[in-house]
Amino acid sequence: MKQNIYDNPIFFNQYKALREKTYNYNGLLEQPTMKSLLPPLTNLQILDIGCGMGEFAQYCLEHHAKHVTALDVSSNMLAIAKQKHAHPHIDYQLQAIEDYEAPSNSFDCITSSLSLHYVQDFDKVISQIAQMLRPNGVFIFSVEHPIATARHTMEDNWIYDESHNRLHYAVDHYHEEGLRQQTWLVDGVVKYHRTIATMMNTLITHGLSIDKIVEPIPSKEAIQQLPSIEKELRRPSFLFIKVKK
Amino acid sequence: MKQNIYDNPIFFNQYKALREKTYNYNGLLEQPTMKSLLPPLTNLQILDIGCGMGEFAQYCLEHHAKHVTALDVSSNMLAIAKQKHAHPHIDYQLQAIEDYEAPSNSFDCITSSLSLHYVQDFDKVISQIAQMLRPNGVFIFSVEHPIATARHTMEDNWIYDESHNRLHYAVDHYHEEGLRQQTWLVDGVVKYHRTIATMMNTLITHGLSIDKIVEPIPSKEAIQQLPSIEKELRRPSFLFIKVKK
User: Fold this and answer.
1) What are the C-alpha distances in Å from A181 to residues A142, B73, B199?
2) Residue B30 Cα distances to A56, B24, B58, B97, B220, angstroms
């Protein structure tokens, strides 16, 4: 069963409100990093896994991609995507990556922003991706950083003093891979923790070579716009991996 | 100035006592992992950086390596190495890797156990290593894990409750790379913290391709022999990276 928390109406409305804020982690940290890792997109066939509201698919076409196949498991998300970012060269599909089938060597570039930590069988999904990617193609994805997903807790991983100053970040259970239930906007959001070694070795095993790793830090401007983002310097929340076939 | 804490007599005697214990992290965790990552050693030319007391150099010859160049900055360590593990095909040299020079393509295999976190200029050292390594050669090293070196503190990174049970492990200052002064056996041991991204990208930039990552976990037997090592399951202390040229 693939998690589809984005079709939980309470979650979805809160998530939408978060994304509609002028300054958020997506706009200040995740998307700038993803875009910095992209190859020149001109004429590329792209697969975007977990496309959400379609902004990234639209961005790819604005940068001269030939076609974007954009998957998401949430009909809420896709309804917005189709309304706001419809385009004859974007094919939105209500589909989990685990169930998606495409011929070998279909894509020049596969991307996924903060969705693969929802996937239970990482090995299977990486195997599919490696097969769908063309030789010399690139696959770039971000996930919540294993430092952030490791600890089994329903609470915040930040530890505070009595005045609610952040003392440090708590890590635990690092080698217990698998399910984590977390409270993020609503209770019971399900994610999967995997170690850095597991992610890297899975990619390598499937014939993908590690090209770049990014643990993004906010720019000075981002910190001015959203001062709370400065805590990213204290521990990474996101991990980006770019690989080549 | 290259750190040479191993020639501090108080440190050295304590370190020696630790290593002479029947069960320690070196024997139960670090060395088994290093050995599991080695290629078949028959006829290889090996460079071991931070060879310490020479056990690993000796192991390589027992496994049919052709020759081992074994570097260490500590004359204390090398005195023991030359006494216990002297061999006509081991060349012990009192030398920091930063000052070591060898022709290009000199070695089939370069190893370093828990020494590169003492190196200030990682980029320079990786550049040297990439040059000294033969095409298709392998470089395998372990360092203290960035999760463990991140926090600026003279204290233990474990956070305890009142009964001295470990609550969780503390991470902080992850993106502040550079000097860390720690108390380990004596005060003021100097190490360098680097992020996972920095280490990986430095290797890739110098033409080395990531072959395997290991964040070692103790075996059941190791936990029986040294129960306190079970805490390695809660956060990794060591990071191994194996690359190929």
Assistant:
1) 19, 48, 31
2) 44, 9, 16, 21, 15
- Cα A141 to Cα A125: distance, rounded to the nearest angstrom: 12
Distance CA B117, CA A235 (A): 19
Interface size A-B, in CB pairs within 8 Å, comes to: 103
Whole-number Å distance between alpha carbons of B91 and B75:
14
Residue with tokens 């030359």: B82
**Are B93 and B100 within 8 A, CB to CB?**
yes
Residues on chain A touching B232 (C-beta within 8 angstroms): 175
The stretches in chain A having pLDDT less than 50 are: 1
B179 three-class SS: strand
Using one digit for the tens of pLDDT, what is the confidence trace for A88-98? 999 999 999 99
- For B24, counting Cβ atoms within 10 Å of its Cβ (0-12 exposed, 13-18 middle, 19+ buried), the class is middle
Binary contact (B215, A235; C-beta < 8 A)? no
Q: Which of A147, A200, A235 sits opposite B210 (nearest CB)?
A: A200
One-letter amino acid at B54 equals: G
Least Cα separation, residue A143 to chain B (angstroms) = 14
Minimum-distance CB partner of A235 among B174, B233, B234: B174
Distance CA B156, CA A190 (A): 32
Please give the domain boundaries of chain B with CATH numbers for all domains: 5-145+195-244 (3.40.50.150)
| pLDDT values of chain B reduced to their tens digit, one per residue, 245 residues | 466 777 787 777 777 777 777 788 999 999 999 999 999 999 999 999 999 999 999 999 999 999 999 999 999 999 999 999 999 999 999 999 999 999 999 999 999 999 999 999 999 999 999 999 999 999 999 999 999 999 998 888 999 999 999 999 999 999 999 999 876 666 667 899 999 999 999 999 999 999 999 999 999 999 999 999 999 999 999 999 999 99
